[in-house]
């Protein structure tokens, strides 16, 4: 049992929790909580860390097939945890690696892609990924200025969807969007100066939604890539929606149209 916060394994886990660079170099990330640990494909789990109190009440199936499990004192686990009220279990997980082809579905099913530019809030990103799975998105394309998908707050907010939705960070995001267009994907920008109401446009063909920064939206360069700029009509004094909410509105409208067509 690990009983000291100065233990080298504790320091290692903390570095993965706090530093995106460490996560990239080690090709690992931390997933905390019982529900999300159950969602992880077993072959991707490198190690599980449990608090003493959690281990005393845990079902054995959570550990089955895991070669490396570590028991730590409750005090040490609190030092490891990124949450206010830790459940007592976390996993070190191998990162995913997708190609652009992974975002394009099999023939007969049109692509539905989110292309995200400079989104900063980890909670927003995680919520978008979770909502995206629910709406049937086939992939998420992000620029390098977007929050790290392996930030612990993103992982928690996805509620496991991060293991099932293909995603890519593009070094040249603009070129990646243009590549989608060259493959027949119609590109739509959520924009305050949109020319079309979001529910008046057809998304039943291959489609991509451009989503921008929480505070300032899409850059003009990014918005210029769109075939159509969309607006979500507002009542009252509301000018715009949170990026995660706006994304969800668009994705689920696309999902609704596709269900009707099917």
Describe the structure.
The chain is an alpha/beta fold. Helix content is 34%, strand content 20%. It has 10 helices and 11 strands. The chain has a 7-stranded parallel β-sheet with strand order 7-6-5-10-8-11-9, with helices on both faces. Strand 5, helix 6 (122-135) and strand 6 form a beta-alpha-beta unit. The protein starts with 7 loop residues before the first helix and ends with a helix.
Defining key terms:
262 residues; alpha/beta; seven-stranded parallel sheet; 11 strands
In short:
By secondary structure, this protein is of the alpha/beta class. It is 34% helix and 20% strand.
- Structural class by sheet pairing and helices: alpha/beta
Annotation field: number of helices: 10
Question: Helical residue percent?
Answer: 25-40%
Spatial strand sequence of the major β-sheet = 7-6-5-10-8-11-9
Gyration radius, in Å: 20 Å
Mean pLDDT rating: 94
Topology as H/E string? Answer: HHEHEHEHEEHEHEHEEEHEH
Largest sheet: 7 strands, parallel
Distance between the termini: 55 Å
- Give the tally of β-strands: 11
Outline type: elongated
Strand content: 15-25%
Instruction: Indicate the low-confidence ranges by residue numbers.
Output: none
Task: Describe the protein's topology.
Elements: H1 8-18, H2 20-26, E1 28-32, H3 34-39, E2 45-51, H4 52-55, E3 69-72, H5 74-80, E4 89-94, E5 112-116, H6 122-135, E6 139-143, H7 152-158, E7 167-170, H8 173-182, E8 186-190, E9 196-197, E10 207-211, H9 220-223, E11 228-231, H10 243-261
Parallel strand pairs: 2-3, 5-6, 5-10, 6-7, 8-10, 8-11, 9-11
Antiparallel strand pairs: 1-4, 2-4
Helix pairs in contact: 1-2, 6-7, 6-10
């Amino acid at each position: 049992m690990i009983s000291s916060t100065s233990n080298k394994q504790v320091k290692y886990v903390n570095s993965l929790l706090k530093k995106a660079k460490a996560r990239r170099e080690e090709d690992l990330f931390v997933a905390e909580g019982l529900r999300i640990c159950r969602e992880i494909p077993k072959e991707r789990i490198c190690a599980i860390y449990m608090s003493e109190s959690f281990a005393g009440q845990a079902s054995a199936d959570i550990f089955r097939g895991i070669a490396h499990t570590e028991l730590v004192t409750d005090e040490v686990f609190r030092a490891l945890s990124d949450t206010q009220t830790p459940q007592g279990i976390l996993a070190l997980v191998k990162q995913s690696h997708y190609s652009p082809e992974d975002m394009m579905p099999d023939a007969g099913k049109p692509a539905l892609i989110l292309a995200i530019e400079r989104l900063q809030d980890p909670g927003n990103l995680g919520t978008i990924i979770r909502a995206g799975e629910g709406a049937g998105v086939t992939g998420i394309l992000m620029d390098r200025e977007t929050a790290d998908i392996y930030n612990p707050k993103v992982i928690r907010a996805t509620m496991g969807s991060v293991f099932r939705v293909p995603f890519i960070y593009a070094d040249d995001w603009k070129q990646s969007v243009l590549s989608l267009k060259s493959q027949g994907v119609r590109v739509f920008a959520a924009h305050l100066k949109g020319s079309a109401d979001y529910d008046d446009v057809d998304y039943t063909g291959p489609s991509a939604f451009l989503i921008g920064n929480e505070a300032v939206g899409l850059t003009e360069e990014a918005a210029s890539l769109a075939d159509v700029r969309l607006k979500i009509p507002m009542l009252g004094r509301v000018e715009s929606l949170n990026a995660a909410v706006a994304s969800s509105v668009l994705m689920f409208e696309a999902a609704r149209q596709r269900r009707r067509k099917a």
